[in-house]
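One-letter codes give the sequence; the fold follows as C-alpha cells. An example follows:
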Amino acid sequence: MKGNHGNFLKAIKAQFKSESHCHSVETAHGRVERRSVSVWQTLADLPGMVDWEGLTTIIRVTSYRHLLKGQHLIIKKKQTRYYISSLNETVEQFAQRIRNYWHVENKVHYVRDVTQGEDASRIRVQPLPNLFAGSP
C-alpha cells in the first residue's frame, strides 16, 4: 500500500493487529537485514473495507538494515511497508512471497543499471528516451 490510499492506509496503520508473525535475518553484500512479517486477517472492524471486495489479509513488513563500512557499523532507520491480499496464506508463505518479489525486482534493477547502464545514461529529456527505446 502506498500513500495514494490516504484514509485507508491511515486506518491500517492505526488499527493493525498482528495475529501471527515471523522473523528472518539475511546477510549479504556487507549488510545484515532483519525482517519481521506480521499478518492481520480479522478485518471486520476496519473502516473502508467495503471498497476492497475480496480483501482477506493485511501484511506488515518491518525491516532493519545494518551496513558495515570498514570498521564502522551504520544502522539505517527502520522501514515499514504494508501489503493487502485476497489470499489466505500463513505468515511464512506471505514472507516468502514478498521476499521472492523483491528478489526479482532487484535482479531486474541490476540488469537495467549495471548491464544496460541505465542510471549512468544521460538520455533524460524528451524526445530522446522515446527515440532510444524505439517507440513513437
Notes: The chain has a mean pLDDT of 80. The chain is about 30% helix and 30% strand. The longest strand covers residues 57-69. The first helix runs from residue 6 to 15.
